[in-house]
Specification:
The complex is a heterodimer of chains A (220) and B (85). By secondary structure, chain A is an alpha/beta fold. Helices cover 56% and strands 13% of the residues of chain A. Chain A starts with 5 loop residues before the first strand and ends in an 8-residue tail after the last helix. With 85 residues, chain B is mainly α. In chain B, 89% of the residues lie in helices and 0% in strands. Classes of the chains: A alpha/beta (220), B mainly alpha (85).
C-alpha cells in the first residue's frame, strides 16, 4: 500500500486526464475520481474527502477558480492544486486567494508535480518553479513602480539615483566619481542634493530612506 | 492627448488578451504532447531504442513552451513600458 495521497483529477481534456492518471498511478498515487467539468469536480470532492484535487482553470461550465471558491465556501475536505496552462500572476493570485493550496503549470515536469502533491497533502502550499519566477518578477516590477513614483515625488534625477545606488555600496565619493566618469566635486554636489531632497543628514540615512522609498533595492 | 493615451491602453489591453488566449491554447496542446511522451516513456521501458525519439519530443515541447513564455513576457513588458511612458 502506497503512502502517497489519493488524488482527484478534474480536467475537461480526456486524453490529458488519462495520461495524468497513468503517470500518477505509476508513481504510487491512488486516483480516487476523475471529473470533466466544474460541477463534476464539486461532486467528486464531496464524495471523496481527504483527497488532493488537480483542477484545471478553463472548464466548460464552472471555471476552476469558481470551483475552488465554492469548495472553500462549503468547507469541503479537499486540498486543491490548480493545474493550468495559464501562468500569469492574476490567475495564480486569484487561485490562492480563493483557497487553492497550490498552482502548477501543465507544462511542469512530472517529478515536480509529484513533489507538489506530496507537499500539499502534508499541509503545505506548492508553487511551480516557473510561476515562482513570474511572481518574483511581478513583485520586483511593483517595487520598481513604487520607486518611480517616489523618485518623481522627491524630484530625484536619474543621475542622483545612480549616485544613491552607489552610496549603498562601500564606495567612496572618489570611486563613485570614477565609476560615473564625473568629478568628485560633482558627485559631492549630487550627494548634497540627495540629502536635501530626502531630508537626511548622512550617507547611511540616505541609503535607508532610499530603500524605504523603494528607490534602491537591498543588495543593489 | 489623454484620449489617445486611453485608446493606446485599450489596444494594449486587447492585445494582452489575444496573446494570453493564444499562449494558453498552445501551451495546453504542448502540455498534452509532453504528457503523452512521458506516458510512452513509462510504458516503453523494454524499447530503450525509442528513448531518443521521446527525448526529442520532450526537448522540442520544452523549447516551444519557453519561446511562448518569452513571447508573452515581451508583450507584457511592452505594455508596461507604454503605461510608464
Amino acid at each position: 500500500m502506497s503512502d502517497r495521497a489519493c488524488v482527484i483529477i478534474a480536467d475537461d481534456h480526456g486524453l490529458f486526464r488519462r495520461g495524468l492518471r497513468q503517470l500518477l498511478e505509476g508513481a504510487g498515487f491512488l486516483i480516487a475520481a476523475e471529473a470533466s467539468s466544474g460541477e463534476g469536480a464539486l461532486e467528486c470532492a464531496a464524495a471523496n474527502p481527504g483527497c488532493v484535487m488537480l483542477l484545471d482553470i478553463m472548464m466548460p461550465d464552472l471555471t476552476g477558480l469558481e470551483v475552488v471558491r465554492r469548495l472553500n465556501e462549503r468547507r469541503e475536505d479537499v486540498k486543491v492544486i490548480m493545474l493550468s496552462a495559464r501562468e500569469d500572476c492574476d490567475a495564480v493570485l486569484s487561485a490562492i486567494s480563493s483557497g487553492a493550496r497550490g498552482f502548477m503549470s501543465k507544462c511542469t515536469e512530472p517529478d515536480e508535480l509529484f513533489a507538489a502533491i506530496d507537499l500539499v497533502a502534508r499541509g503545505g502550499t506548492a508553487l511551480g518553479a516557473c510561476l515562482a519566477t513570474t511572481l518574483g518578477n511581478e513583485v520586483r516590477e511593483l517595487d520598481r513602480h513604487a520607486g518611480l513614483s517616489e523618485q518623481r515625488r522627491h524630484r530625484i534625477t536619474e543621475r542622483e539615483l545612480e549616485v544613491l545606488r552607489l552610496l549603498a555600496t562601500a564606495k567612496s565619493p572618489a570611486q563613485i566619481a570614477s565609476d560615473l566618469y564625473l568629478s568628485t566635486k560633482t558627485v559631492q554636489n549630487h550627494i548634497q542634493a540627495l540629502y536635501r531632497k530626502l531630508n537626511v543628514g548622512s550617507r547611511s540615512a540616505a541609503v535607508v530612506e532610499g530603500m524605504e522609498l523603494h528607490l534602491i533595492q537591498p543588495g543593489g | 492627448m489623454q484620449s489617445s493615451a486611453t485608446a493606446a491602453q485599450q489596444v494594449q489591453h486587447e492585445l494582452d488578451g489575444i496573446v494570453n488566449d493564444f499562449t494558453h491554447d498552445l501551451k495546453s496542446s504542448l502540455a498534452v504532447v509532453a504528457l503523452c511522451a512521458h506516458v510512452l516513456r513509462s510504458e516503453l521501458t523494454e524499447r530503450p531504442e525509442l528513448n531518443e525519439y521521446i527525448d526529442a519530443i520532450l526537448d522540442e515541447t520544452r523549447h516551444c513552451v519557453e519561446r511562448l513564455r518569452t513571447f508573452g513576457d515581451s508583450v507584457d513588458l511592452q505594455g508596461k513600458a507604454g503605461e510608464t511612458a
